[in-house]
Amino acid sequence: MLHKVIENDIKLFLQEDDLHRHFGVAQSLPMDLVHCSLKIKSPMTLAGVAWFGATFNYLGANLPTNFLTELEGKEFKDPYQVDFELPYAIALTGERVALNLLARASAVATHTKRFVDLSKNSKTKILDTRKTTPGLRSLEKYAVTVGGGFNHRFGPTEMWMVKDNHKTFFGGVKNAVDFFRSQSSAYAPIEVEVHNLAELSEVLELGVNHIMLDNFSPEMVKQAVKTKKSNTTFEVSGGINLKTLKDYLIDGVDFISVGSLTYGAPPVDLSLKHGAKV
């Protein structure tokens, strides 16, 4: 099922890899079955195996729909190798795209899990943001969930986010909130980004249920949660990293959003070796 959902993405990724220009060469390669070894060479949480398998299947392989699914989300601390078989032409043509997708997803999942592990004794959930790689949002947001994190909105209309530029244009918090409430989106909630305690008080009076405390210090967050109403959620955001995360795991903070889950995930080391005929 997932293979079909991401098929159009795989097509674009292979086009980017110049398949349309070297299709003749790819078509002329032997289709003999060869041994393939996926090598996990650095510590990681593996993610993206569906994209990995779908790349080869798009090119004509016949990998099962559950290919490597038992390894999805597994944490590897030591080197590990998975062996399977592919037609040589397909292995050679699809390997770079397949590895790129698997490595990117695994990097995001691995980085996310570090944040999740640090917050596991709190009630606070770790969120991603829309700071994703163009064309890879679905992959990266999926990888966040594999790492134990949660997705914020996928696009701007899923939740109206009232930010500084809106407040400036509409002439304040109330006018900006009124504008988005007038959009008649029956199920789209509103979240307002606030930058100080006075602004927080104003937003609470407007009856906003979802509030982002942006670039608050831990001391300011502790003051803010004292004013929290029972039907509101507080999200903390703004440059929080692995070194500062614990300072923000404060009772009353429902979510901490971290853009670096996607844009700052350190790379992981994977390779695919093949060539020997079956």
What does the model show?
This protein is an alpha/beta fold and 278 residues long. It folds into two domains: 2-111 and 266-277, Quinolinate phosphoribosyl transferase, N-terminal domain (Aldehyde Oxidoreductase, domain 3, Alpha-Beta Complex); 117-263, Aldolase class I (TIM Barrel). The chain is built from eleven helices and eleven strands. It has helices spanning 2-5, 7-16, 23-28, 49-58, 88-118, 137-146, 164-170, 173-181, 197-205, 218-225, 260-263, and strands at 33-40, 44-45, 75-76, 80-87, 125-127, 160-162, 190-194, 210-214, 233-237, 255-257, 270-277. It has a six-stranded parallel β-sheet. A three-stranded antiparallel β-sheet has the order 4-1-11, covered by helices on one side. Helix 9 links the parallel strand 7 (190-194) and strand 8 (210-214). Helix 7 packs across helix 8. It is elongated and about 70 Å long.
Give the structure's gist in a few sentences:
With 278 residues, the protein is of the alpha/beta class.
What's the topology here?
Blueprint: H1 2-5, H2 7-16, H3 23-28, E1 33-40, E2 44-45, H4 49-58, E3 75-76, E4 80-87, H5 88-118, E5 125-127, H6 137-146, E6 160-162, H7 164-170, H8 173-181, E7 190-194, H9 197-205, E8 210-214, H10 218-225, E9 233-237, E10 255-257, H11 260-263, E11 270-277
Parallel strand pairs: 5-10, 6-7, 7-8, 8-9, 9-10
Antiparallel strand pairs: 1-4, 1-11, 2-3
Helix pairs in contact: 2-4, 4-5, 5-6, 7-8
